[in-house]
Design a protein that fits this description.
three-stranded mixed beta sheet, elongated, five-stranded mixed beta sheet, Immunoglobulin-like, Serine Threonine Protein Phosphatase 5, Tetratricopeptide repeat, single chain
Length: 251
């Protein structure tokens, strides 16, 4: 079984600054070899140590490495918590969503993660794209282009100014605008040979939307904001069952 101690994370700094490179979560292995499990355990312990020292960038690196090697939900939870402490709300939301999507996640852990995820959602903005998406690619800011399909998709970005570009063969669509935290807006994608930059209207919605997590924002800098994140408490009655044989016993 896997147990972790209570971890209080305090982050003081610049929230909403341009995100560091964390394009997407690594795919967890189905059956990691023993050598990878041992490396994952070492990375996890280093991450816990770094987090205790408030070295959150280092902690993030180790938790990413641990999760990539093991697929352990505890590593994923700590990664999500660390990202939230760093103000990387979009990426934290992706991690929390993957964690909460696990049907085998124990209810005490789910109860702890859900309010943290709900808080993360209030710090991001959502754009719902509708229209000519099939076969097109979408680029948000300077991130690599990603394929689109269907008639609608929701993307999640950090607050701030963003540039979107959808392309299909010789057709394109552009949008440029600034979004506030909690904003939700609908955009109609109409691909054409001659494109114009579409600007957002003044009003912004606040209703719920599917979390996709495409794109990274260059948001406005907010100075001296304190974010307190309390890590999951795992005891004898509320333990994470890892998807892999990884077992971590921490004092």
């Amino acid at each position: 079984m896997l147990a972790i101690r209570t971890l209080a994370i305090l982050a003081v700094g610049l929230l909403g600054a341009p995100s560091m490179a964390f394009a997407q979560l690594p795919d967890p292995p189905a059956s990691p070899p023993e050598a990878d499990v041992l490396q994952a355990r070492e990375a996890f312990l280093r991450g816990m140590e770094f987090a205790g020292e408030r070295r959150f960038e280092d902690a993030r690196r180790e938790f990413v490495h641990s999760y990539a090697l093991s697929g352990s939900p505890v590593a994923l939870f700590n990664l999500a918590s660390t990202l939230r402490s760093l103000g990387e709300h979009r990426q934290a939301g992706e991690a929390f969503e993957r964690l909460l999507a696990d049907p085998s996640l124990p209810s005490p852990v789910r109860s702890q993660a859900q309010p943290m995820y709900a808080d993360v959602v209030t710090h991001v903005a959502r754009l719902r794209l509708h229209g000519e998406l099939e076969g097109a690619t979408l680029r948000i800011d300077r991130e690599p282009a990603r394929p689109l399909s269907g008639g609608s998709v929701t993307v999640v970005v950090d607050p701030g100014a963003h540039d979107l570009a959808a392309e299909r063969l010789d057709q394109a669509w552009r949008w440029s605008g600034t979004l506030e935290a909690g904003a939700a807006r609908d955009l109609l994608v109409t691909l054409s040979a001659a494109t114009e930059v579409e600007h957002p209207d003044a009003a912004g919605g606040n209703d719920d939307a599917l979390w996709i997590g495409v794109g990274a924002g260059a948001g406005a800098v907010v100075v001296a904001i304190v974010a307190i994140v309390v890590g999951v408490v795992v005891d004898g009655e509320a333990q994470l069952e890892p998807r892999t044989p990884l077992v971590l016993e921490l004092p």
